[in-house]
Design goal:
- The protein has about 220 residues and is of the alpha+beta class.
- Helices cover about 60% and strands about 5% of the residues.
- It has helices at about 10-20, 40-45, 65-75, 85-120, 125-140, 155-170, 175-190, 195-210; strands spanning about 1-5, 25-30, 55, 60-65.
- A 4-stranded mixed sheet has the order 2-1-3-4, covered by helices on one side.
- A hairpin with a 2-residue loop joins strand 3 (about 55) and strand 4.
- Helix 4 (about 85-120) packs antiparallel against helix 5.
- The longest helix has about 30 residues, at about 85-120.
- It is globular.
- The protein starts with a strand and ends in a 6-residue tail after the last helix.
């Protein structure tokens, strides 16, 4: 499977982590988002939204990171543990995937991307909104080891890609005890974390160092 990605992107790394969890190899195709149209030709042709990540599995083309993760887990997972079939458990996993997409990662983007991409000043009230989302995640993680109960699911994979990037941006996580302990479990337990996620996190930290104040 061809996988078009950028290592700085948390959503891109989520798909790569899921592939590691289901023990499949992706044909990784790094994409420089600042490159000319010639270098972006494949993505521009395959995906009308021109977004990353984009997955090509035979004649099936899929974009948006959470559907890519659930697709890989459903098609290639040896069990249903990563994306459970039980309706209530699956719904809880989906709720956290949507929380990541619509709230946590969105608020992080609202806070971090204008300074990173446009050179604007950091806006403290956007950091407050991000911390509010982290407080909610802290509540969601109370009472169990992983995002949904005591088994790793794609919710953990998607969320850890986001939260580790938030940490790399210098955002203080220390007031969210459950998030901190869960993040450390993910770093030491998730298949391929050091190989797949850590290099992107470190690269993001370098990018953010001069443009994001440590508030």
């Amino acid at each position: 499977m061809d996988y078009y990605y950028n290592v700085l992107s948390a959503p891109c790394r989520a798909g790569m982590l899921t592939a590691k969890a289901v023990e499949i190899e992706l044909n990784l195709k790094p994409v420089d988002l600042l490159a000319g149209k010639e270098q972006l030709a494949d993505v521009l042709t395959l995906n009308p939204q021109h977004t990353l990540p984009t997955l090509v599995d035979g004649d099936f083309v899929l974009w948006e990171s959470s559907p890519i993760c659930t697709y890989l887990a459903t098609k290639y997972g040896k069990t249903d543990s990563l994306y459970p079939r039980d309706a209530k458990t699956c719904a809880t996993v989906n709720r956290l995937l949507y929380f990541d997409l619509g709230t946590l990662y969105r608020r992080f983007g609202d806070y971090a991307f204008p300074p990173l991409c446009m050179g604007t000043e950091v806006e403290p009230h956007k950091l407050d909104l991000l911390q509010e989302a982290l407080r909610w995640l802290n509540q969601f993680l109370a009472g169990h080891e992983w995002a949904v109960g005591n088994n790793i699911t794609v919710a953990d994979i998607v969320l850890v890609a986001t939260v580790s990037t938030i940490e790399a941006a210098g955002v203080d996580l220390s007031m969210h005890d459950n998030v901190v302990s869960w993040l450390e479990r993910c770093k030491s337990t998730l298949p391929g974390y050091t190989e797949v996620n850590q290099p992107g996190v470190e690269e993001f930290a370098k990018t953010a160092e001069d443009k994001l104040k440590k508030l």
